[in-house]
Specification:
Blueprint lengths: L4 E3 L10 E4 L3 E5 L10 E5 L6 E9 L11 E4 L5 E2 L14 E9 L4 E5 L6 H14 L4 E5 L13 E5 L10 E6 L7 H12 L4 H9 L1 E6 L28 H10 L4 E8 L9 E5 L7 H15 L7 E4 L9 H9 L2 E8 L4 H15 L2
Parallel strand pairs: 3-5, 12-13, 12-14, 14-17, 15-16
Antiparallel strand pairs: 1-4, 2-3, 4-9, 5-8, 6-7, 6-9, 10-11, 11-13, 15-17
Helix pairs in contact: 1-2, 2-7, 5-7
């Protein structure tokens, strides 16, 4: 039987620390108990015969606060979750071990990931397509400036400005943020598709807000200088994110009244794993604004799989985070919504749309 061909040579592609093709399929291994065991690569069957690919994964016991939750993408089909054994860690086995299998057709290529972030080109192509569907109501704009601006690292947004009185309406900014291998960018793109759909819920939001959606593409995780796992939107640090200063200047030049930032989470925290982050009430310039922000955060936190509200208090843990600084400096009602990878891409995209609708009340 011909060996499988695996590749990470695409935007956002990444291998675990060790990957090996075996007669049964693939062996993935992580040797260090720090950070999430993530991967996003393609698998090709060079044979003329279909087969079943068996995948074994192994990593240190100390890292069982994370789990795999792999997903598979075939051709133009959506990402689909793959069942694994065991479904959750037992907390005893050292090293931790999980297995899963999937069918692979003759000459077929599929993508396998547990955190399928998007590449810059994929983000830009999608936003251009959405803008072309309704050029009278929305348009592309770029945050990227200066010598470092290239097609590969462009940060592009989609702006809705549906009527001449839009300048009098409150501004709502939606960010999709990659933190390490997270796919917040994919959630922001799902929201952008929702807003171009012209459904009554979408039109309600567009009638009441000026909306900018900015899916920040994930840096290429296979680059040697990527510090995967770092919070990319931290002040005072060496940010991996392209054009971070451009993003901050964009926010300062026309401060939004509300900001919603999407992440995905990988840690196991119980049955309700979606997290909502909001600056504590006393971070805002007025008590009224602080109470309004907390009230909206509680509405979003009440959505299915929620109940994990994280107030960002005045200490060193939070003060460098973008959401905190937007609240403190600009008095913007800002929350972060972190969907959990255990629910899968399709479900998380739907959750992101529900979070936007709740935040826009």
């Amino acid at each position: 039987m011909n060996s499988l061909v695996v590749s990470r040579n695409f935007e956002g592609g990444s291998f675990p620390e060790e990957i090996e093709s075996t007669p049964e399929g693939l062996r993935l291994q992580k040797n260090h108990g720090v950070d999430h065991f993530f991967f996003h690569f393609s698998v090709t069957n060079p044979s003329q015969d279909a087969r079943v690919v068996h995948v074994t994964c192994q990593w240190p016991l100390t890292n069982q606060r994370y789990w795999l939750f792999p997903e598979l993408k075939r051709s133009d089909q959506p990402w689909q979750s793959v069942s694994i054994t065991p479904a959750l860690p037992d907390g005893k086995s050292d090293p931790a071990r999980a297995e899963f299998s999937f069918p692979l057709g003759a000459r077929e290529t599929v993508f396998l990931a547990n955190t399928p972030c998007m590449g810059a080109t994929e983000v830009q192509d999608l936003l251009r397509s959405l803008a072309s569907r309704d050029p009278d109501r929305c348009a592309l704009f770029s945050l990227s400036t200066g010598e470092q601006r290239t097609p590969e690292n462009e940060v592009t947004g989609l702006r809705w400005d549906p009527d001449p009185g839009a300048g009098q309406k409150p501004k709502l900014v939606i960010l999709g943020t990659p933190e390490g291998p997270e796919y917040g960018d994919r959630l922001a793109c799902a929201v952008a598709e929702f807003l171009t759909g012209a459904t009554p819920p979408a039109m309600d939001l567009l009638t009441r807000f000026r909306i900018d959606v900015i899916p920040v593409p994930c840096p290429n995780l296979k680059r040697a200088d990527n510090r995967a796992g770092q919070v990319l939107f931290d002040f005072g640090k060496d940010n991996v994110l392209w054009h971070f200063e451009d993003l901050w200047n964009y926010l300062v030049n026309d401060p939004p009244q509300r900001l919603l930032e999407f992440h995905t989470d990988t840690k196991l925290k119980g049955p309700g794993c979606q997290r909502v982050y909001v600056a504590a009430e006393n971070v805002y310039k007025t008590p009224e604004q602080g109470r309004a922000a907390m009230a909206l955060a509680k509405v979003v936190d009440s959505l299915p799989n929620g109940n994990w509200l994280n107030p960002m208090v005045k200490d060193s843990t939070w003060q460098n985070v973008l959401l905190y600084q937007v609240a403190a400096r600009l008095d913007t009602i800002a929350i972060g919504y972190s969907a959990h990878i255990r629910y899968g891409v399709t479900s998380n995209c739907a959750s992101a749309i529900r979070a936007l609708q709740a935040f826009g009340k």
